Amino acid sequence: ASLRPLDGRTWWQVLCVGRDEPLWIDAASGTVDAEADERYARAIAAKATGAEKPVFSAYLTAFDQEYIAIFRILPVYRFDVADGQGTRVYVSTMTGSVTRATDDRRQFEADLFSLAHKWNFIPWRPVRDWALMLAMASLIVLAMAGIILFWRTARRT
Fold first, then answer.
1. 26 with 11: CB under 8 angstroms?
2. Which member of 9, 71, 84, 120 has the lowest number of beta carbons within 10 Å of its beta carbon?
């Protein structure tokens, strides 16, 4: 359980086993509010982006192509901002923070990185891991061959 400020009042945010979203209980009156979690997430997104009304677009309980496992925190809310740049933020109400902020340009760069450095164009993870290991082993052999050739030719001259 955590105490959280929302709408000028203090709330208990309580995690319950078997529920994806926490319960929000008004600390003064004891009433439960089912929509408080999304309102809290929207307030965090609005503060982070400067947008008056960020648009709720998804509630993620699993990682996807854009919100990948390196961000580590689930569940998160995704909010989009109508700024012409495709800005979007992922908000965790459990930490009370933005876990990821991106836009179309940054996401394009992240996708290129994933394709070039993680080989995400290979959909099957075991095949991708073996292909990456084979490529890295080949690069190590190539580097060792270069060092050996350098030492062999360096002694002659």
1. yes
2. 84
